[in-house]
TrEMBL record:
Keywords: Membrane, Transmembrane, Transmembrane helix. Pfam families: DUF8094. It comes from the Bacteria. Residues 310-603 form the DUF8094 domain. This is DUF8094 domain-containing protein. The chain crosses the membrane at residues 191-213, 257-278. InterPro entries: DUF8094. Coiled coil: none annotated. Residues 219-246 are annotated as: Disordered.
Length: 609
């Protein structure tokens, strides 16, 4: 019976080990699934659409080959289509019939008018001359190389990949998509380990059976005595065997028989240590990374699915702000007006250009506060599929209180234009940014003439200018919160100081009015709005007596640098541009309009005609 059990254990062990090895050899599935496509034609851009990227499950490994420079980027499908616009391009998709990649070429479209393009995602593009997609703010990420570029991504639905060279040469033709297959064999480990255990058990049973058989053949003791047998003649004694004639001891044989199975068992156990050979008994789930790392709730995701997408993701905006911060720091140091104009526009650009002009004349003038690129503590992109687009963000470094908290309003005019800083404010210390939708949802833009707010956005600057000049006598005074409004205090103190320093032979007049810059408003959760406006302040200094002269104060270095005058009999005028950020509550609310942040800068100073 022991031999039978040993044989059964050894046979089962052999079967299990063979099956375990077969799982990792002849039955092993391929580690990758690959599809390839060769694009024909001279199209400068190739788009790998979401159907091709979803040709198999898992992350996508994209390999692009060409003769020269290769550029690869991914972004929302609508953004990729908008960037291409009316240019010719090739599309790599997936055939539902054959399961293979297909490539088609779409010819260039001539717009109906020279100023616009057709299609829902296309808009008048002031930057149509830009043909190189590298560096566009629309991309979630981008890669570049020469002759070959390979990257592994985990792109969800709604994301497309753009492949190009430099926008002048044709796009690379060879495209290969690969997906890592799950070729794990969770039964291989248990089969090999179980086979090793059965092999060891079978060998033990076999040895025990041999020992039992050996003991059964020995003479038995205490046998009953029978009749006495006659004595037989003594058999001849065998010759003694010399030690040199013994070639192998029984102990050596036993040792070898025991060592061989142990070596086999150890090898099998060690080969079964890979995680792919064992079933996954862990309960924790693994989440695949997506292009945006913004935390999102189920409600937010469902809401986002029913609304236009946000203009940018948080990770996109972090990259954009990092680039703008780096460029502005270089431009501020070198007084580079051309460079700063690529990333600044509107009143934010006007204030910086004036500062460059002043510092070029008088280097003792301090530069403007540097724009930090991180960390972003608040992000509110516009909900939109069209252009122009706006995004608001707040940058606050809690570890360095010397750096003021900055609020930035960015604008992207067209798909091929990059985001530019339109407004740049220093937030009030007591400012509390109202609750707004999460970045994954974004906020709709509010029309400038919206009557559902306490004050329409396009009337906000004029009303505040009236409060600034008339104070409590202004009809709009009660609409604005005075507590915590440091800008009003600052303007009043500066004007009082200028009046006190003015000689008796001169007069000074102050005025304020709404600026001509675009009003930008984004909705908040309480049906209110965050509104950015500009305002223009002027101070006019004139002599009051015939023959008298006036000039900038001794400490007015900026005025002297801009005007170039020391004294004049005509008088002079200084113009300041104010950037103001307000929270405007909904109509009928008992709350007041609150100033959240501001920036003021001298932009012109000139002699009166």
């Amino acid at each position: 019976m022991r031999f039978v059990l040993a044989i059964v254990a050894l046979v089962l062990a052999a079967v299990m080990i063979v099956l375990g090895i077969a799982q990792r050899t002849i039955f092993l599935e391929p580690a990758f699934t690959s599809l390839s496509s060769t694009v024909t034609g001279d199209a400068k851009y190739t788009v790998i659409n979401p159907s091709a990227l979803a040709g198999s499950t898992g992350s996508q490994t994209i390999n692009v080959r060409g003769d020269g420079a290769i550029f690869l980027a991914y972004g929302r499908s609508e953004d990729v289509a908008a960037w291409i616009g009316n240019d010719a391009y090739a599309t790599v998709g997936l055939s539902e019939k054959t399961g293979e990649l297909t490539s088609t070429v779409t010819d260039a479209v001539v717009p109906d008018n020279p100023n616009g393009t057709s299609g829902a995602a296309a808009t008048p593009d002031a930057a149509a001359a830009i043909v190189n997609p590298a560096g566009s703010d629309l991309w979630l990420d981008e890669y570049a190389g020469t002759e070959s570029v390979t990257t592994t991504l985990a792109l969800p639905a709604g994301i497309s990949v753009l492949v190009a060279s430099d926008g002048i040469e044709p796009a690379p033709a060879s495209i290969r998509l690969s997906w890592a297959s799950d070729n794990s064999t969770p039964l291989a480990g248990p089969l090999l380990a179980g086979g090793a255990v059965l092999l060891l058990a079978g060998l033990v049973l076999y040895v025990l059976a041999l020992l039992h058989l050996r003991r059964s053949r020995r003479p038995r003791r205490n046998l009953p005595r029978g009749p006495r047998m006659p004595r037989l003649p003594r058999a001849p004694r065998p010759k003694a065997i010399k030690a040199s004639q013994i070639t192998q001891s029984r102990r050596g044989i036993t040792h070898r028989v025991a060592v061989v199975p142990m070596i086999v068992v150890s090898g099998l156990v060690l080969t079964g240590c890979s995680a792919d050979l064992w079933p996954d008994l862990s309960t924790a789930s693994t989440t695949t990374a997506t292009p945006t790392a913004t935390p999102q709730s189920t409600d937010s995701v469902e809401a986002a699915a029913e609304l236009p997408p946000p203009a940018v993701t948080v990770s996109q905006l972090e990259t954009i702000m990092s680039e703008i911060s780096r460029l502005s720091a270089e431009a501020d140091t070198n007084l580079n007006t051309d460079s700063i104009a690529t990333r600044f526009t509107g009143p934010a650009l006007e204030q910086r250009l004036a500062n460059y002009k002043i510092r070029a004349v008088d280097p003792a003038i301090a530069p403007l506060v540097a724009l930090p690129g991180a960390p972003l503590t608040f992000t509110l992109p516009q909900q939109t599929n069209s252009w122009p687009r706006v995004v608001m963000t707040v940058i606050q470094d809690e570890n360095d209180p010397s750096i003021p908290t900055m609020a930035v309003m960015l604008k992207q005019e067209s798909p091929r234009a990059n985001y530019q800083v339109n407004y740049l404010f220093a937030l009030e210390q007591s400012a509390h940014v109202p609750k707004a939708a999460p970045a994954i949802v974004g906020a709709p833009a509010i029309a400038p003439d919206n009557k559902l707010l306490l004050l329409p956005p396009d009337q906000l600057a004029a009303a505040y200018a009236d409060v600034l000049t008339q104070g409590e006598a202004s009809p709009s005074y009660e609409l604005f919160e005075s507590e915590g409004d440091n800008f009003r205090i600052q303007v009043a103190d500066l004007n009082a100081a200028k009046i006190a320093a003015l000689p008796s032979t001169a007069s000074i007049d102050f005025a304020a009015m709404a600026g001509s810059d675009e009003t930008v408003a984004l909705a908040t959760n309480d049906s209110g709005s965050i509104v950015s406006v500009s305002m223009t302040e002027t101070e006019t200094v004139k002599p009051v007596d015939a023959g008298a002269t006036v000039g900038p104060a001794a400490d007015a270095l900026a005025t002297k640098a801009l005007s170039g005058i020391t004294t004049t009999a005509k008088g002079f005028q200084n113009t300041y541009r104010d950037q103001l950020l307000f929270y405007v509550p909904t109509a009928g609310s008992s709350d007041k309009i609150v100033l959240l942040g501001f920036a003021q800068g001298l932009i012109t100073s000139a002699e009166l005609p």
